[in-house]
Structures are given as C-alpha cells and as structure tokens.
Amino acid sequence: MKIAILTQPLHVNYGGLLQNFALQKVLKDMGHEVYTVDLPFRDFWYSKYRAIAANIVKKYILGRKEISNIIPKSNAPTAKEKLIISQYTEKFISENIDLTQRISIVEKLPKLRNYNFDAFVVGSDQVWRMAYSPGIFAFFLDFLFKNENITKIAYAASFGIDYWEYDEVTTNKLKLLIQKFDAISVREKSGVKLCRKYLDVNANFVLDPTFLLKKEHYVLFAEKAQSYFSPHSKSILLYVLDDSAMKRKVIAVVQEMLGMKTTSAMPEKKYEEKNWSDVEECVYPPVENWVRNFMDAEFVITDSFHGTLFSIIFNKQFLVIGNKERGLSRFNSILGELNLEDRMIIDEKGLTNDFMTTPINYEKVNEMLSDMQDLSIHFLEESLGVKN
After folding, report:
1. Three-state SS string across the chain, please?
2. Per-residue pLDDT tens over the stretch 163-209
C-alpha cells in the first residue's frame, strides 16, 4: 500500500522526530511505500494563534482599538538562524524520513490527492490536542471526508490530557469525522475513555511508535554518534524541557546522593531565552547523539515523555519529573502499564531514597513491553490488511 503519515510538524523535537521515524520504518518493513506529510513548523501555527488572540482582544476587550502592543510579536528565529539551530535535525529528516511535497497550510492538504495514497495514518504524538493542533479537523482527516476508498487509521493518536477540551459544535464535527475511520488507536488509556464517551467510538490502546523498534536498532543507530560522556564514566543524563527552581533542586539532591556528574541532552542555550551571544550555542545536537546519550547514561532525570520512553528502552534507572503543562496522562498511562508509577514525582516532596536504592526490575518490564509491542504491531497489520 501507499501510505501517508500525518503527524505534528517536524523540527527540533527529538521525540517527535523519532516517533515519526519509527512508525515510518515499521510500516516500510511491512512492505508498504510510506511518506510523511510535510507540514510547516512554527510559523503557520504561531500566526494563526496570534490572529485568533488579536480578534478576541479586539472584539471583546478593546472594541476596535489598536492592539499591536498587546499581542506580543513572535520570538521565532529568523530563517537564517533557524537553519543554524536545526542543521542536525534537518539533516536527520532529509536522510531518514521520506516526505511529501511541502504543504504550507492545512487548507492545502487536498493537494495530496496527486499521490494516490491508499491509506492515511494519523499519529503519533499529541495530534488530537487543540493547543498543539490549531487545524484540528485536518488531524481527523476532514480533507478526506468524502473519499471512501482511502483507508483511514489513527495510530497512537494522543489527546495529551485526560479531560475533554472541545465545545459541543467541535465535538459533533469530530464525531462525524472519526466515524469514517477504519481503525482507531490511542496512546493513553485515558484516550480510550475519551473516544468512547465523547466520540462514540471504540479505540485500542497501543504503544508509542518509538517502542515498536527493538533496543538493538537504536544501539546501531547510536553507534554512529560520538558520546558526550568520557569512556567508562558514570553520569546523570538531564533531558529537561522546562527549567524551574524545583527541578534544579531535585537535580542537585539526586546528584549529591549518587555522587555523579551531570550532562545535558539539550542545546547549550535556548534561543527563546535570549541569554545567548552566538546562535551556535542554540544548535540542537544530532539525533544520533541524543539517542547515544541515553545509551551511555548511568541514570536519567527527565520531564519529557520520550525521554522517559528512551530511558526504558535502554533499561536505565530514571526519575521522571511530571510535566503538567505538557500533559501528565501520557506519563501516567505508560508508567502504569509497566508498573513504574513510582518513578515519577510532581515536586521535590516526592523524592525519596527509593529512587537510588531500589533498582527497576527490567526483566519484568521488558516482558510486559514485548507483549504490548506484539499487540501494537498486530493492530497496524490488521488495520492495513483488512478494510471494513
């Protein structure tokens, strides 16, 4: 089959890149021809949000007054800076992910009919979370609504949160669209409940695509990179997306308890913080290096969902600092399935010696994960092999 994957725009998000890479590889290994829809990154989403915010302020708060000083301008990098910052992640995309033509805005998605795709797979990542997908109807394949000859599948689609955020009008439209899907799966147990309660459909619980590839595949991948760690050194890997005083305190306590140095899987500085003097300080390291850091780490501290998954893939002892703003249901779901709920804390009060003195029993974790991998692969095979 000729398959299109519709996921969040690719850029410098390591988890987003690797889940797309993994899903595309798994589908290709099944014998399919696979492309990922090339949607723009931040420019389109930001401009749309800014326009919506401007209209709300103009209409309901200020009447028709000038609002240019109220809605902040974008702090996005220039085109030249963006190329520098994303030079390695863009290289990864060009070498590892097959893309369609660039689709500048979601309204132009019907142009993909020229590819004559047999199937569209929506997922993974938080494609069904309104805050991350302003063109939400596109991620329910509204542009294919009248085409009954294309297989429509949701694989590990995520709402990101465990409550319903759509109004009645939007819900009714989403319900109409999702009824046209041939197979539906979500990445969180809470998503199964939301689909049943609000969309009147049954959804399967499946693994994030990064879990569908075996550890050995990532090892081969990581061996292409230079490790950031000195040979035989024991280090704590930090993959923290949202810095805070609380997280810095937790890191300091763990570091003291383990007596290890720390290293980071993030750029030296973040562009949006404006505390850099040279844009080269903001460059995202190669994806292979990011994976290699997890392979080499002795211990991992992260607030990232995919940072959590790669800690598990490489059988690392780890601590998750729950990231409420980015969605806790993702963490709760997979950690609950693998009996690892005790590896996550919300604040420093949850930090105990157990994280250091009680190692994770990865023999049991890997057995459970293997069973879930089989079920997830079976869902894909069955969904693409049989059309209702």
Report:
1. CEEEEECCCCCCCHHHHHHHHHHHHHHHHCCCEEEEEECCCHHHHHHHHHHHHHHHHHHHHCCCCCCCCCCCCCCCCCHHHHHHHCHHHHHHHHHHCCEEEECCCHHHHHHHHHHCCCEEEECCCCCCCCCCCCCHHHHHCHHHCCCCCCEEEEEEECCCCCCCCCCHHHHHHHHHHHCCCCEEEECCHHHHHHHHHHCCCCCEECCCHHHHCCHHHHHHHHCCCCCCCCCCCCEEEEECCCCCHHHHHHHHHHHHHHCCEEEECCCCCCHHHCCCCCHHHHCCCCHHHHHHHHHHCCEEEECCHHHHHHHHHCCCEEEEECCCCCCCHHHHHHHHHCCCHHHEECCHHHCCCHHHHCCCCHHHHHHHHHHHHHHHHHHHHHHHHCCC
2. 999 999 999 999 999 999 999 999 999 999 999 999 999 999 999 99
